[in-house]
Amino acid sequence: MNDSSDNLIEIRDLDYSRGSLQIFRGLNINIRRGEVTAIMGPSGTGKTTLLRLITRQLLPDHGTILVDGVDITKLNQADLYRLRQRFGMLFQNGALLTDLSVFENVAFPLREHTRLTNRLIRHIVLTKLHAVGLRGAADMMPRQLSGGMARRVALARAMVKDPEILIYDEPFVGLDPISMGVIVRLVRRMNDALGISSILVSHDVQEISSVSDRSYLISDGKVAASGSPQELSTATSDLVKQFMHGMADGPVAFHFKAPDYEEQLLGRDTD
Amino acid sequence: MGLLREIYQTLVQFVRTFGAFILFFLELVRHTPATLRKRFGLVVAQVHNTGTLSLVIIMVCGLFVGAVLGLQGFANLSRFNAEDTVGTFAAFALIKELGPVITALLFAGRAGTALASEIGLMKATDQLSAMEMMAVNPIRRVVVPRFLGGCVAMPFLTAVFSAIGLFGAHLVGVSLLGVDVGAFWQQMQQALSPKDIEEGIVKSIVFGGAASLVAVWEGYNCIPTAEGVGRATTRTVVITAIVVLILDFMITARYL
Predict the structure, then answer these.
(1) Alpha helical stretches, state H, B39-110
(2) Percent of chain B, pLDDT > 90?
(3) B35: region left, alpha or beta (phi > 0 left; psi from -120 to 50 alpha)
(4) Distance CA B211, CA B201 (A)
(5) In B, which residues are within 8 Å of A81 by CB distance?
(6) Which of B49, B119, B127, B225 to mutate to test the interface with A (most CBs of A within 10 A)?
């Protein structure tokens, strides 16, 4: 049992539904300070939705989300924006501002929230771009970048203000093996060197296991399992085994709910 | 019973949407002073963007609308031996009505759709959410500059439309059909009062505000998909056309 002061983010009894679809019911998660926490789960379990709830891009139907002891669901806009300045977020698709160059995209948070000189901003931006291997692309526009490059620029932008909490939504999608290796090491190194806390949402079990301190496996609106990557990889639960080892058979169905295959092919389901 | 329920639900939905639209407008007004103070450069860039987007189409259309007014005016007024008043006829039509209305419709079709689709695509590609996450209010950073840009550009575009239209009427009436050049301009000057010009200016400002507001509203509130953005751009043109014509009637009635 950990001390609650170790928890940077505490999610308690969270319920969230979209229309008639219940996505979370009674979800409880602790994100510890200084750790890399992974959120995993089959497609459609609401991992990205959870990130949007943690950052209050969405409001829950019920429950509390405490960030450093403050219930984020109850903040007014000014306080919310103040709190968000402590976050950095990498979106699934990068979400670069298409009317700004790569350099200006990374410089954007600094220009908006600081009064640093252009010289200093240039220094910081080039340092961050160098860390993701794209210093040479500083003058390019987002439309000239590949998907993987755009995500690396977005990562540089997410960390440009050295945030306390870095949130990565599927950081490894679309990266070639070399870039993925570099980014995995960068996530770990930044977390340890800067003493920040990181939350990762990903399907890449191998990569996530190599970088995270603690993982949560979400299924059916709740935490199905949690623990260190080693604990999860040796877990005996059918669901955890199926997910961690990528097995086709298990409690999580590969096929979306559908009528009987034979009946449908023979057209009997329309009778 | 089903029909009544449908009518009731449509009515409730309309009131809800209208309320949200008014709140959105008030939000824009609330952020306008801060945007002008801190992001004046963005507003200037948007005036340039929306202005240049529509300038060519406005000039071409203005020329031909004026030319048609010159032709129609000459053909009909000459039946009463009043062809010298072609200039007055064209000036009244352009400055009080056609200038503001057609400019607003062309603006909606060119710059309005561009604004709606740009904001809609920013929403669909999470750019607005990314701004929110960087503690930057997208209303202040994206929407207000585009709204103000449209509001400022529209009166200038209307002035250009009317001026080019008068040139077109002059070209046809005076240069082609032989109306006396002195009578063309002299009678126009005598007939037009400052109130007529004021009516045209007021209309261009109101239509500019309405067209820009509809465009940014549709873009900001679109469903963030390709289909949603497409629908938002179409709605921008349709709603602007309806709103502008209703407002035109109201302002005209006020000035009579």
Answers:
(1) 40-77, 86-92, 99-107
(2) 89
(3) alpha
(4) 15
(5) 135, 137
(6) B127
Mean residue pLDDT across chain B: 93
Any A CB within 8 A of B129 CB: yes
pTM, to two decimals? 0.85
Quote the CA–CA distance of B138 and B147 in Å, as a whole number: 13
Enumerate the residues of chain A whose CB falls inside 8 A of the CB of residue B137. 77, 81
| Contact at CB, B134 and A112, closer than 8 angstroms | yes
Query: What pLDDT is recorded for position A259?
Result: 84
Contacts of A113 in chain B (CB under 8 A): 134-135
Asked if B157 and B51 touch (Cβ cutoff 8 Å), the reply is yes
The span from the CA of B43 to the CA of B55, in Å, is 18
Instruction: Count how many Cα atoms sit within 13 Å of the Cα of residue B54 in the half-sphere of its side chain.
Output: 33
Q: Poorest-confidence range of A85-99, A123-137, A203-217?
A: A203-217
Complex ipTM > 0.95: no
Q: What average pLDDT does range A220-237 have in this prediction?
A: 82
What DSSP letter does each residue of A197-232 carry, written as one string? EEEEE-S-HHHHHHH-SEEEEEETTEEEEEE-HHHH
The pLDDT score that the predictor gives to residue A1 is: 47
For residue A29, report the phi and psi dihedrals to the nearest 5 degrees.
Answer: -145, 140
